Structure of Probable membrane transporter protein:
Amino acid sequence: MQKLLILAIVGFAAQLVDGALGMGYGLTSTSLLLLSGIAPAVASASVHIAEVVTTAASGVSHMKFGNVDKELVWKLVIPGSIGAFSGACFLSSIPGEIMKPFVSTFLILLGLYVLLRFLVLNDRKSKVRKATNKFYVPLGFIAGFFDATGGGGWGPIATPSLMAKKELEPRKVIGSVAASEFAVAASSSIGFILVLGWNQVNWLWAGAIMIGGIFAAPFAAWLVKIFPAHLLGIVVSGMLILTNIHTLLKIAGISSDHKKYVYIALVVVWISCITFAIIKGRQLKIQNKQSYMES
């Protein structure tokens, strides 16, 4: 019962992050499940089965608020679903102990990517380059594949790529990625069930994560109003790195004493990044206010 409660809290926290950033549900949930000793395939399967429900609720909400570009959704759904199904079959066919260091490395790299993405606040408008299917098809497939193998990656890969290439409002990008994620989660779940079998999936874990995510959904919008998106991005990226470095340090045979120094160093860097983001955010806020008053 205690473990189910913890998993529900994990799902709640992950959905809060995902609702605020348009990414992070799968990454956060999978990282914490791996940390508790669950095999990568089972962890990813549990998260994606839970995501079938949470992403459906998220997609419907975004559609009601007019945050979805239907044309963009269809361009992402097909390659994303194929990539997710392929990734699920690939991960399920490999022993968990072999995949753990690779999955943890992938999640750490994604954590670093998210950190750099939100640490650098750039308010300059970049040139808009209209993307074609040559961009959408590989983007959808790669994002879907890594989402299934890493337990998360659809949002962190697809969202920033679309913001850089497509002439869309940020809310349209986040809403469209969220809406298309339902198909990706469903395809991953089908792949995991077909290869692993129904009996290998822990439905209690998946249900606990799902319930936590559902309860968090209405609070996510409120959280966006309180905390800046870039600050939440830095917080979640630090958590991803800290939770997954444990697996790599264990495999490398690092002693407990040396592990402590590694964790201390990471926490110091993490706190420094958060502090820098807060200061930079305040400076930009003051600059924008002054520009508005002058105009």
Q: What stands out?
A: The chain is about 85% helix and 0% strand. Residues 256-294 form the longest helix (39 residues). The mean pLDDT is 79.
